[in-house]
Amino acid sequence: xxxxxxxxxxxxxTRGRNVSAVALRLPQRSELWLFDCGEGTQHxxxxxxxxxxxxxxxxxxxxxxxxxxxxxxxxxxxxxxGTCTGIDLYGPDPLRDYxxxxxxxxxxxxxxxxxxxxxxxxxxSGGLLLDDDDLTVRCAPLTHRVPAFAYRVxxxxxxxxxDVERAKAEGIxxxxxxxxxxxxxxVTLDDGRIINGASLCGPDRPGASVVYCTDTVFCEAAVELAxxxxxxxxxxxxxxxxxxxxxxxxxxTSTMAAQTALEAGVKQLVLTHLSPRYMPGNPMTPDDxxxxxxxxxxxxxxxxxxxxxxxxxxxxxxx
Length: 319
Fold this sequence. Notes:
Blueprint: E1 2-7, E2 21-26, E3 31-35, H1 41-47, E4 55-59, H2 65-68, H3 71-81, E5 87-91, H4 95-105, E6 114-118, H5 120-125, E7 130-132, E8 135-141, E9 149-155, H6 164-169, H7 177-182, E10 186-188, E11 194-196, E12 209-213, H8 220-226, E13 231-235, H9 243-249, H10 254-264, E14 268-272, H11 286-294, E15 300-302, E16 308-310
Parallel strand pairs: 3-4, 4-5, 5-6, 12-13, 13-14, 14-15
Antiparallel strand pairs: 1-2, 1-16, 2-3, 7-8, 8-9, 9-12, 10-11
Helix pairs in contact: 8-10, 10-11
């Protein structure tokens, strides 16, 4: 999986940062998922190397404008392109009414399937929001001024490494049969032997995991959702000195984000959703936010628009 930040500012865009949007690229299936869609997100796609034609799923954290105002325009453009096979949208209960209202009143026709799914039932029950072939998605309720959700994407464990030399030593001829064995399936050879592919593979390799958490003040639900994740993307709207303001507005400080990462035992933390007050040249800058967070959770960096990160879980065979 690969993450690309398309917007990293909170509230309003700045010259260097657009409002919230994060793309999750799934190269093995030529597919893109989008998390939040602030105003101008489709312009950010045009400035990136991502292909919006691969967009299949959109996850909305909450209904504040800096997270949803880009959605109608993006969906309309996909319709005009005429190549979209369908979009699934996930988010708060008002998401469907919002889209239906703006599309209807603007006389916008969507010529592809547009399916909306409520996040609340899965967040309340702790069950899966999505089980999609080799990926699962969970969500959790956050603590904000309006209903908001964090999302976690997990890649299912992958088959262990196939021992080619051992297969040859057992007289199994190379060819398409190896693909079946690599997948752990039973295969009957021409000589009548039944080979269990799993016996020729090492232990299952863990899949990658990423958590997207915004907007919220520090909450235990976010910690539980993020537990053990490879990457935690967490809002850092305010500095530690603005903690009182963060509580008032139900947002996180850099230290709250770091505390979430530390308690959850994630591998890496990326700060996003920065207030425009921390633009370079101001008394506090993004570098200062990273320094505050790193004092608690060292493996921290701050996102910037168009930053891309590969999410690669550790391979137990390489340990």
